[in-house]
């Protein structure tokens, strides 16, 4: 139980501090509360994460506004919360990440066939349907989505090659261990509960992106990126540039050998491979990017670092 308490203390200190006062308070509280630690210790080790607990509790009971409300919710609904924690995973779908990788897509020879591995509900498969505000340059959403599409704000460095138009994407598909279904109310509620409570802007744009995706449903098939990708690549039209991309996914593959094998297979297939992940995921590529930037993702194309990006797409620091 000590290690669970330490995990929650670390989450409060490193992840929640400055980003979510509520989660910071709750995580510290969990770390020092016997009944919460006992509850967590009865779950499988890979189901004890703070993000999963807080999202599951909100999914079952709504957002607790205080430690007292948290304790009451966990006391009264422990079984329902545990069920959510063992059946669901942290599948946060953050369409704002498109603002960080769209400029790279626009540099590729079109038309494009886009394949996203670890797509969750597929919201990042629609980068050509959203609007962008990179501060010194804007790109309006296409007219058919103009009224409902979110516009993603991203602070871009002076040297970032910002596009004047969306890329031409003629085919797209996603792959996920557990694709979330945007017509399923529970799945959409889960996506909403995964957004931290104070992140109102992210919540609003998630809702807007879901509206867009319901009008232009991206196909996401069930499968494991380690075994099931070649079938999708074979389906892509031969006259388009095939781009395989992933954001915030490879850290779910715990074994570095598996990650490296995936990287090698991507280089060998001859597709364009775009990876937007924490730099620790591919240390070999991160070495080429200079000093590690704290709390940033590294955007690699075919294993070559091109930019540091904010983990929610809020920043683009071109190398
Ligand atoms: C944090 S979410 C990121 C979703 C999306 N890429 C985004 O940036 O919004 C990670 C996703 O990766 C999926 N995933 C994890 N391991 C996977 C694997 N081996 N094969 C396919 N999908 C995987 C999870 O199911 C989850 O939906």
TrEMBL record:
<dbReference type="InterPro" id="IPR011200">
    <property type="entry name" value="UCP012608"/>
</dbReference>
<protein>
    <submittedName>
        <fullName>DUF2332 domain-containing protein</fullName>
    </submittedName>
</protein>
<dbReference type="Pfam" id="PF10094">
    <property type="entry name" value="DUF2332"/>
</dbReference>
């Amino acid at each position: 139980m000590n290690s669970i308490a330490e995990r929650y203390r670390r989450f409060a200190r490193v992840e929640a501090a400055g980003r979510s006062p509520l989660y910071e308070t709750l995580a510290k509280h969990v770390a020092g509360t016997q009944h919460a630690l006992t509850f967590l210790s009865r779950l499988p080790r890979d189901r004890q994460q703070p993000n999963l607990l807080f999202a599951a509790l909100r999914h079952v009971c709504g957002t607790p506004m205080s430690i007292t409300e948290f304790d009451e919710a966990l006391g009264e609904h422990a079984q329902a919360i545990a069920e959510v924690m063992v059946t669901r995973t942290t599948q946060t779908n953050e369409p704002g990440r498109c603002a960080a990788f769209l400029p790279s897509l626009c540099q590729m020879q079109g038309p494009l066939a886009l394949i996203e591995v670890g797509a969750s509900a597929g919201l990042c498969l629609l980068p050509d349907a959203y609007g962008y505000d990179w501060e010194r340059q804007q790109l309006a959403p296409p007219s058919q989505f103009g009224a409902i599409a979110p516009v993603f704000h991203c602070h871009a460095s002076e040297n970032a090659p910002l596009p004047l138009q969306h890329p031409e994407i003629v085919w797209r598909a996603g792959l996920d261990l557990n694709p979330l279904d945007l017509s399923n109310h529970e799945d959409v509620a889960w996506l909403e509960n995964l957004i931290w409570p104070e992140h109102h802007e992210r919540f609003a744009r998630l809702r807007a992106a879901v509206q867009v995706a319901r009008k232009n449903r991206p196909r996401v098939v069930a499968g494991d990126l380690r075994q099931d990708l070649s079938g999708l690549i074979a389906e892509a039209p031969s006259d388009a540039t095939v781009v395989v991309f992933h954001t915030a996914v490879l850290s779910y593959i715990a074994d570095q050998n598996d990650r490296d094998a995936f990287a090698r297979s991507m280089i060998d297939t001859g597709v364009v491979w775009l990876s937007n992940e924490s730099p620790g995921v591919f240390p070999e590529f991160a070495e080429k990017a200079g000093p590690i930037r704290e709390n940033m993702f590294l955007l690699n194309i075919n294993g070559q670092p091109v930019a540091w990006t904010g983990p929610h797409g809020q920043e683009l620091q071109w190398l």
